[in-house]
Amino acid sequence: MKIFITGGKGMVGSFLTDAFMERGETVYSPSRQEMDITDRKKVVDTIRKINPDILIHCAALTHVDECEIDKKRAYLVNVIGTQHIIEGCASVNCKMVYFSTDFIFDGKKGVPYSETDIPNPLNVYGHTKLLGEYCVSHFLHNFLILRVSKVFGAKGRNFASLLPVLMLKEKKLFLTNNLINSPTYIVDLANALILLVKKDFLGIANICNKGECSWYKYALKVKEILGREDTELIPIEFERFSKGKAERPRYSVLDTTLLESIGCSMPEWETSLKMYLAE
Ligand SMILES: NC(=O)c1ccc[n+]([C@@H]2O[C@H](COP(=O)([O-])OP(=O)(O)OC[C@H]3O[C@@H](n4cnc5c(N)ncnc54)[C@H](OP(=O)(O)O)[C@@H]3O)[C@@H](O)[C@H]2O)c1
């Protein structure tokens, strides 16, 4: 199978690139310098030239607060850029996988969100990712929209993976205790994606580990597993330091009933965290 991965140097994209290459697949994964997704001609020409069986679109502006500050760029990359990818996929008739987020929801439901719940993003990042979803489902038939949250276990400047390192350096860490969602271990995410592709599942699917937590609860678990008794963890409410930051959903846990019905049972996040830290 020939696989095209955008954002292949990012956290999710680089992991998937390695994972598919290890499985013996042919992977083409250009950097932003090699193929900027805001360049329509470059994108369409490159996809036509590669002519992949499947395109996994991981490129995005993912820093939530930066998206709020530079709205124009966020829309350009996350919406117009996605539209260019869609056009390329349509021209070669390949399957497109689009990564979305729990941040498309406002967090007011109080119980986990299923794939059919009505989104209502609170910030620019969530809004641009939702518009990307709408473009994919409007213009393509052969697509997979995967909603993930709080991905951990891969390279990159992401908090979930940095936390164990921070804990070795810092004596005291302040962590939010009132933004709740579900961590997603990149290995479990890749396995679920492979299964969905194998089963030729089309449409929207939530992918995350079972259970839920705040960053504070996540850090407590990291501390317990690593035995870092000297690091003090202090819970704080998001409102205490939210000035100048993008608004965030308070409870954006994703329901994985659909994923389970397809035969993909995700482990509890604590189990996957233990596996990750053991590595
Ligand atoms: N990580 C999570 O917890 C999480 C949660 C929910 C959803 N998601 C979604 O999952 C996907 C992958 O996220 P990630 O964590 O891997 O993000 P990431 O580490 O920030 O990687 C994003 C990649 O996109 C590239 N990129 C940005 N602008 C581009 C452009 N104009 N043209 C081409 N490439 C561009 C970046 O390249 P440069 O570094 O060179 O700019 C980077 O390699 C995204 O769609 C994100 O919204 C992630």
Secondary-structure blueprint of this entry?
Layout lengths: L1 E5 L4 H12 L3 E3 L11 H11 L3 E4 L6 H6 L1 H22 L2 E7 L22 H16 L3 E6 L2 E2 L6 H11 L2 E5 L7 E2 H13 L4 E4 L8 H12 L5 E5 L20 H5 L7 H10 L1
Parallel strand pairs: 1-2, 1-3, 3-4, 4-5, 5-9, 6-8, 7-10
The structure holds NADP nicotinamide-adenine-dinucleotide phosphate.
The name of the CATH superfamily reads NAD(P)-binding Rossmann-like Domain
> Which hetero ligands occur in this complex?
NADP nicotinamide-adenine-dinucleotide phosphate
Q: What's the average pLDDT?
A: 95
| Radius of gyration based on Cα positions | 18 Å
CATH A-level architecture: 3-Layer(aba) Sandwich
Weakly predicted, low-confidence segments = none
Main structural class:
alpha/beta
Distance between the termini: 29 Å
Largest sheet properties: 6 strands, parallel
Order of helices and strands: EHEHEHHEHEEHEEHEHEHH
How much helix, percentage-wise, in residues?
A: 40-55%
Shape: globular
Task: Please identify the top-level CATH class.
Answer: Alpha Beta
What is the tally of helical segments?
Answer: 10
Features:
single chain, 279 residues, alpha/beta, Rossmann fold, six-stranded parallel beta sheet, 10 helices, 10 strands, binds NADP nicotinamide-adenine-dinucleotide phosphate
Could you characterize what this model shows?
The protein is of the alpha/beta class. It has one domain (2-213, 246-278): NAD(P)-binding Rossmann-like Domain (Rossmann fold), CATH 3.40.50.720. The chain is built from 10 helices and 10 strands. Strands 2-1-3-4-5-9 form a 6-stranded parallel beta sheet, sandwiched between helices. The relative contact order is 0.15. NADP nicotinamide-adenine-dinucleotide phosphate (NAP) binds next to helix 1, helix 4 and strand 4.
